[in-house]
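Hi everyone,

Forwarding the result from last night's run.
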Amino acid sequence: MKTIVTLAATTVLVLTVSIPAFAQDNLTGVSRLDDRIDDITEAAQDDLDRGEDDERFSPNGVIQGFRGSAALTASGASGNTDTGELSFAGRLSYGLGEWSHLIGFAGEYGEANGIKNEEEFFAIYEGSRYFTPQVYAFGTGRFEYDGFDTNERDAFIGGGLGYRIVNTRQMAWRVQAGPGIRYIADQAGNDETEGAGIASSRFYYGFNDVVSLTNDTDILSSSADTVVTNDFGVNFRMTDTLSTRVSYRTDYTSNPLPGLKSTDNTVGLSLVVGF
C-alpha cells in the first residue's frame, strides 16, 4: 500500500518570501523551497476542489460557458550533471444548454547528460448531450504515450448512454456505459486494435455544509486486460480557512507485468490551512 500525505499551510509563504534579496534566496535554497510550497499547496487545493465541485455532479457536469487553464514549466542545470525538464498541462471546458465538453492535456519531458529519461504525454476528451434531466449520451477519448512504459501508446475512443439515478442538492449519482475501440502499441512495435467497453459511476453525498463524500468508479475492459479504478473520498470543510480531504484509491489490472501485483492501493490526505 502506498500512503501519500499532502499538507499545506499558506501562511508559511509570508515567512519565507520576506527575505529581501532574490539572489540570497537562491543561494540559501529559500526560493527553491518557496516553489515547492507552491506546488504542494496547489496540489492539495486541486484535490479539495475536485471533491467539492458541485458542477461535476450537476446536469451538465461542467460550468456553463468557457473556462480553462494552462501551465508550463521548464528547468535546466549544468555542471556535475546536465539536466533539462519540461512540463505542460491544460484544461478547457465548455457548457451550453444540454451540451458539455471537456478537453485536457499534459506532458513531461526530461533528460540527464544528454540521455532522455522521461517522455510522457496524454490527452482526454469528454462530451455529453442531455435528452432529459435523467438520460444523456456521452462520448469520450483518451490517448497516452509513455516512452519508458511497456505499452508505449494506449488509446481509447467510445461512447454510450448515461442515466442520472439521483440528482438533489444533498445527493447525486449517475452511471454510464458503452462500447469503444482500444489501441495498444508496445515498445517493440507490436500493436493491437480491439473492441472494448467502458463503464463509470459518479456518486456524491453531502451530509451537511461541512462534510461530504464522493466515490468515482471506472472500468475499462478489452481482451488485453481489464482496468478498474475506484476513488473514494471524504471532504471536511471545518472552517472558512481549514479544509481537508481523506481519500482511498484502488487501481486494479487483470494482467499486470511479470513481478508486479494486480492491485495498488493509495491513501491520500490533503489539508489546506489559511489564516
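Residues 128 and 138 are 4 Å apart (CA to CA).

Cheers,
N.
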